[in-house]
Each structure stands twice: as C-alpha cells, then as structure tokens.
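Recap from last week: sequence in, structure out.
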Amino acid sequence: MPRILVIDDEQDIRAIVKHHLVKANYEVVEAENGEQAIQKINEGDNPLTIDTAICDIRMPKINGVEAISYFRKEYPTVPVIVITGFPDTNLAVSLMKKGVKDYIVKPVEKEKLLAAVKKAVSEKAQSGGGLMA
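Predicted structure tokens:
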C-alpha cells in the first residue's frame, strides 16, 4: 500500500485529504508543518518510506517552500505535490521547475487530488525510486 505524507497546518484540510486517500487505499502520515514532516521522515534508525508528499505552502515554522527544498535535496526520488489556498502563478512555475509534480489549489477536489497522487506514485514506481523516502 503506497504511503503518502500530507503536510498542512490546517487540520480540516489534512482530514479531507486523508479521507480521500484512505478510501483510495493509500496509507497516510500527517504533519502540521515542514518541521514536523522532516522529523517524522527521519525519526528512528531508518528514514520513513513514503511514496509521495503532499505539501501546503503557507505554514508556521518550516514553510512549504523550505520543506520542498529539503525533500528535493535529501529525497529526490519522492514526488511532491503542492496544495495551497493562495495560488501564485510565479511560485507555481518556480516550484514545477524544482521538480514539484503538481500544484493544486484549495479547496481540494477529490478527483484532481487522486489523479495527481496516482500519477506521482506510478512515476516513482516506474523510475525505480527505491523504497527509502
């Protein structure tokens, strides 16, 4: 079962995204911000295995842009999907150039979310992205 890391400071958004993903047979790990996401991936002796990260942009502590930079550097095989309530074309283009797979504007539409996640997980599997986050 593919594991998805959902990073968003809004509990309601995480709950909706998790609901859709769990019903589509994904395992979900939640984090309230980039700092917590990085801690969850790196806790214990072995990095947490994830197949895709879904990340908000505006969050306290470590924001989405910083978290995405970290994931691209430390775990380049893990696809990242952005969800945001503040669409910004320049930021979207910039993030896509840095390897972000998709950019979804809130409110999150179930079909768009599931299509983006399915595509990202599939691409990771095809690229032989390995098991590690």
